[in-house]
């Protein structure tokens, strides 16, 4: 016992000596240690890789390509793309996926663009804003807003599908549109419903798997500008929508080639990922704020269709989807919505040349969802992955003046356009006569500016139903944006009516072309029915008259019974004996 009590003072004295020794250390040393600890913490928390880039001599990381060894798309197109066979070096002072993504959201350094707006009405009454940027708009000199696109123009058109809550004014969309237009392409940004300053005009909202709007826009563009090759670029959620659409339509799409950038691929996996770590929860919160702002713009409709109180209290994307998307889209659960709308399930049916670009350090769309095997199994797909890049950022250069993926997309589409591997264009979209013969833009080319600044499409039949306050001079409306301008136009501004003075075709030839188009459309509608009947006849070795008799008997029983009495002898050689005994 004596030894135990004697050891207590010794321990106390040891602690005291330690504290006195610590007090002798200068305060500056403690501050330096705290600073070093903070820097190490931030370096790992922000996933910085500046030291790694420095040790590698700022050479960047190689682009890894995944594809089927027998892929003709790789051999004939991607193998000629210098950027995809090079290395990507991040802007040194943005050497973090989080720094890149945040810088893109708040700054982005986009070029100044002037869009021409076209309001497109889809079949369910919804309105989509199509923002055009023509090659002539960025070719130099003054922009001519009255210039039209001729229906027989062969300049390739690229459709850009933005990401979640993004529109044509997002920085990365401007980068892509300006670069493609600068290299001689006509660009049209297909904004999602309710975005781009457009009001919701039906009870349908867009979601991560809503492909109907894109399908109608693509079919309209293909019919309206039938000589122009049609390409598509999807970003983030827009990439998920694009790949899902390509998988749904397979060979029946007029798209000649496409690019997917930073797609979430599997929404269930991304939902789990975005709520896993602290830093990912910041993105979840930021996306939720954007979705709630989108819902606030259309509160009157969502109050009627969804759980508005739940939307207002949503703290995550999953909460918002539970209270809004599932109600409007008629999904039983959130996971059901995610599984139905994930593009990973449709990759195998993609029949057009498709380049997929993904970053392994994407803080929103995790690498865990990238479908490596599915992309390798489809000879039409080439998957390009980089070690760094963030979400849709990919800044390069000391001044972060450009986005690497934009250059890769431009090079891929240029090589594809000049090659023989473009997907064959179908002259008449196989989605009914309305899509091919009747333009949806005629339903609502008029616009109305409401008091809150929203642009509402008029769904009336014509200008007779509009008030004087709804009409604007020259049918043009300018939306105030810093360094940007939108010109709202009707369908005629984009070349649906060509002046005779400009060397357009005579009226008779135009009517002949329209008549041929109608005949071809009717033939395409009736041809599958005729083929099915012929196959049925060959398979069962029976005549057309027997099929007609069966149809009459099943449709009009009384008439069928009378015919069976009259023609019983003639049918004896055709029908089985058991049928005649009845």
Automatic annotation (TrEMBL):
Signal sequence range: none
Pfam families: Abhydrolase_1
Alphabetical UniProt keywords: Membrane, Transmembrane, Transmembrane helix
InterPro entries: AB_hydrolase_1, AB_hydrolase_4_sf, AB_hydrolase_fold
Name of the protein described by the UniProt record: AB hydrolase-1 domain-containing protein
Lineage: Eukaryota, Viridiplantae, Streptophyta, Embryophyta, Tracheophyta
Family note: Belongs to the AB hydrolase superfamily. AB hydrolase 4 family.
The organism's place on the tree of life at top rank: Eukaryota
Membrane-spanning parts: 21-46, 542-567
SUPFAM superfamilies named among the record's database cross-references: alpha/beta-Hydrolases (SSF53474)
AB hydrolase-1 domain residues: 156-397
